[in-house]
Write a structure and sequence with these properties.
The chain is an alpha+beta fold. 37% of the residues lie in helices and 18% in strands. It has 2 domains: 82 residues; 231 residues, BirA Bifunctional Protein, domain 2, CATH 3.30.930.10. A hairpin with a 2-residue loop joins strand 6 and strand 7. Helix 1 runs parallel beside helix 4, helix 2 runs antiparallel to helix 4 and helix 5 crosses helix 10. The structure holds ligand 2U9.
């Protein structure tokens, strides 16, 4: 056996022993055994001077390889043993304690607004509504014109809508989505459009330049105001609780006629009046009405044959009611102390 063969044998022996080492102490002992001043490799390289000069170059190369390889194996094994937590088996050494409670991995949670949107979509989905979405950058036509909003209406003012340099605007309501759907599809159309809307309001505790809306719409033959009340009551009972009551107050919207603002009975005082509802017993949650004939005509649906209802609400407002949040800005500040309170 040449000296080079002996060195190769030493490498295999080292590989085997290092792979089986399970503590820092054993690894250190192997380092001394193979690479120490009086170790296996030193002993073999000490023989270099006595061998046939023809065998020297190969033996020299193998000796170098042995040093590098064994060092790398020892280092890798040290890292592996450290990572597994077993740093030693001797007295005083920390051992892997399988009875210790584990460290829970850090997990995220859904944003409270997302939670409310998901829950509301879920309820309307079960009532037969299809969930749809559309662009946030819109045209004047879909945001105003098709919705029967007159040219001089205050919501068209540039203090009420964000106009863009490309002639488009940031939608100020999600009704744009339903109009796009009605253009493409024929009744029955039963859709729910959740999404972000933008209005250049000065930011304060109850206003934000961006918020979330959910609007729904149902168009078919013989859809009546009674259907609207039935659907909204079914929703309110699932979302707020089965003993909730609804109150419809007459209102005006250009895109619905007749229109109403809808209140829910206060969940705290059950209608008798308390601080939470400002002694009124009712909380306003949404707007609704029968789709204006002009809106149906704009999408070439005959108001003589078809009718429909629509409704809309602000998600932040409902989320604030649900959790008693008193400042809308908290939803957008990414403050984990606030957000963590909503992770399920
Ligand atoms: C089409 C036609 C009509 C959707 C409706 C409301 C009433 C409403 C507001 C509630 C608070 C918006 O977020 S908010 O500021 N919405 O009161 N929205 S009826 O009517 C439509 C929708 C689509 C084609």
């Amino acid at each position: 056996m040449t000296l080079a063969d002996k060195i190769r044998q030493l490498i295999s022996e080292a590989q085997e022993k290092i792979a089986a080492a399970d503590s820092a102490e054993t690894i250190e002992a192997l380092r001394v055994q193979f690479l120490g001043r009086k170790g296996g490799l030193a002993e073999l390289t000490g023989l270099l001077g006595q061998i046939d000069p023809a065998e020297k170059p190969e033996a020299g190369r193998e000796a170098n390889r042995a040093k590098n390889e064994i060092t790398a194996l020892l280092d890798a094994r040290t890292a592996a043993v450290k990572a597994s937590g077993a740093s030693g088996s001797g007295a005083g050494a920390a051992k892997l304690d399988l009875t210790l409670p584990g460290t829970a991995p850090a997990t995220g949670g859904l944003h409270p607004i997302t939670q409310v949107v998901d829950e509301i979509c879920d309820i309307f989905y079960r009532l037969g509504f299809q969930i749809v979405s559309g662009p946030e950058m819109e045209t004047d036509y879909y945001n105003f014109e098709a919705l029967n909003i007159p040219a001089d209406h205050s919501s068209r003012d540039d203090l009420a809508t964000f106009y863009l340099e490309n002639g488009k605007l940031l939608r100020s309501q999600t009704s744009t989505v339903q109009t796009r759907i009605m253009e493409k599809e024929r009744p029955p159309v039963k859709v729910l459009a959740p999404g972000r809307v933008y209005r250049p309001d000065a930011t304060d505790a109850t206003h934000s330049f961006m918020f979330h809306q959910i609007e729904g719409l149902f168009v078919d033959e013989k859809v009546s105001f009674a259907d609207l009340k039935g659907v909204l009551l079914a929703f309110a009972k699932q979302f707020f609780g089965s003993d909730v009551k609804l109150r419809f107050r007459p209102h005006f919207f250009p895109f619905t006629e007749p229109s109403a603002e809808v209140d829910v009975s206060c969940g705290l005082c059950k209608g008798s009046g308390c601080r939470s509802c400002g002694q009124k017993g009712w909380l306003e949650i949404l707007g609704a009405g029968m789709i204006h004939p002009n809106v149906l005509r704009a999408v070439k649906i005959s108001p003589e044959k078809y009718s429909g209802f629509a409704f809309g609400f602000g998600v932040e407002r409902i989320a604030m009611r649900r959790w008693g949040v008193n400042d809308i800005r908290l939803f957008y500040e990414n403050d984990l102390r606030f957000l963590r309170q909503f992770s399920a």
